[in-house]
Amino acid sequence: MEKFVIQGLGGKKTLKGTVRVNGAKNAALKAMAAAVLFDGPVRLKNMPHTEDIHIQAEILRKLGADVSWTKDSGEIDHAMEIDTRGLRSTDIDGELAGKMRASVVLTGPLLGRFGKATFPAPGGCVIGARPIDLFISGYEAMGAMTKEDGVYDISVSPKSKVQSLKGANIIFKKVSVGATETLMMAAVLAEGKTVLENCACEPEIVNVVEWLNACGAKIKGVGTSTIEIEGTGGRLLSSESAAKNPYVAIPDRIEAGSYLVLGALCADELKIDDCRPEHLGALIDLLKLSGVPIKTTDSSIVVSGNTMPDSSFKTFDVTTKEYPGFATDLQPMIAVYMTQVSGRSKLTETIYEGRFKYVDDLKSLGADIDTVSSQEITISGPSRLKALPAGREMKALDIRAGFAVVLAALCAEGETTVTNIGLIDRGYERLEERLQSLGADVVRN
Ligand code: UD1
């Protein structure tokens, strides 16, 4: 098991330089699933080399698809080609799916194309119950039958003469990114019109839909709470149009936001390049209100953390919300920020019921945090964080909590070892190399 060994900056703001933001993994994963809707190869660009993308590629390969990395621009091959013509199986590999919840998104295109899909209860970050009831009830509304016996077996009713899913009116009882994307992709090949209500509006969904529409899908209303899809009745999207319209992943707003908090806490000056500040409005507004000097252009953010001591930054309260609200995936990083600024902050998590497990780690470094409930904490700052005594290590608990403990370790005095960093690799490409390029002493062992 690999580890990061991190030399803390002890409150000094010495990091300096530029980080380029990669393509959004949460959009790229869904575009990979959408490749199943096409009759031939599709080209995907600006794909990040994160572990989740590699897992999704492996799942597709096991189903019979060809997935290969190619050169995009620059030195690293960030483009991908997926050809699903050889796809025969509809059984999603249990072990791989167990590692990553986004695998469940594949069921939509599989069901749309083959009328059946089998998959295990999906895995992913351990941050809450994460049920899949919205997917199942949506499929059932579209005419599929589901059986659950350790694995979920979904198929379009064998008694029906209709092989395709049928368009339906579905009102999600909860806003869900994955259910919105999955049911929408299932509806692309269905018979008739599907109307999805109470949909998620995340930019990653818009990114994938704009591509699918450019390739012949008929999806209206994305980015609003009601999405309408005119199904093709089983006809696959054409790879000829895909050849003219490659998918390009938008910049990863969560990666950009993670580096923005890093910049506010640890950098003399940090430029975050190739990002979309418009997707980070909630975080940028709060940091600016707090006193952090931030300048944005359409595609970059410059944060100068060094102009003031953290103790002069004002504190604030945060409640996580669906987009365009404050992203739950940035909640652990903002908790670290709150440990370093003056005053008492309230942090409320509304999306997941188990996303404060990292709090014990921050407390062990010296943070002053009270747990009010499983979904609310208060943080008093500023605290001088100190590395754990020699021999004790911290463990990355999930992708984002993993980044947060790395951030806390950088703020602290002394050397901290973070284990289980495979989880961090699921969402951040070559994190240690990028931190090193800014002047941090972080080594992968
Ligand atoms: C996606 C993101 C994840 C982010 C989350 C919320 C990907 C790969 N992951 O996850 O990083 O934290 O959006 O912004 O894109 N729910 C149900 N029943 C369901 C489905 C979901 O109750 O059938 C609940 C979940 O338990 C959660 C809430 O809905 O409490 C929102 O989850 P959802 O938006 O579905 O998250 P994901 O799509 O899994």
Description:
The chain contains 15 helices and 23 strands. Strand 15 and strand 16 form a beta hairpin. The protein is α+β, with helices and mostly antiparallel strands. 31% of the residues lie in helices and 23% in strands. Helix 4 packs parallel to helix 6 (177-188). It has 2 domains: 4-22 and 251-444, Enolpyruvate transferase domain (UDP-n-acetylglucosamine1-carboxyvinyl-transferase, Chain); 25-248, Enolpyruvate transferase domain (UDP-n-acetylglucosamine1-carboxyvinyl-transferase, Chain). The model has no long low-confidence stretch (mean pLDDT 93). Bound molecules: uridine-diphosphate-N-acetylglucosamine. Uridine-diphosphate-N-acetylglucosamine (UD1) binds next to helix 1, helix 5 and helix 6.
Descriptive tags:
binds uridine-diphosphate-N-acetylglucosamine; UDP-n-acetylglucosamine1-carboxyvinyl-transferase, Chain; 23 strands; alpha+beta; four-stranded mixed beta sheet; 445 residues; 31% helix
Number of DSSP helical runs: 15
In CATH, what is the class of the largest domain? Answer: Alpha Beta
Helix content: 25-40%
| Bound ligands | uridine-diphosphate-N-acetylglucosamine
Proper CATH architecture of the largest domain: Alpha-beta prism
* Spatial sequence of strands, sheet with the most strands: 21-22-1-23
Number of strands: 23
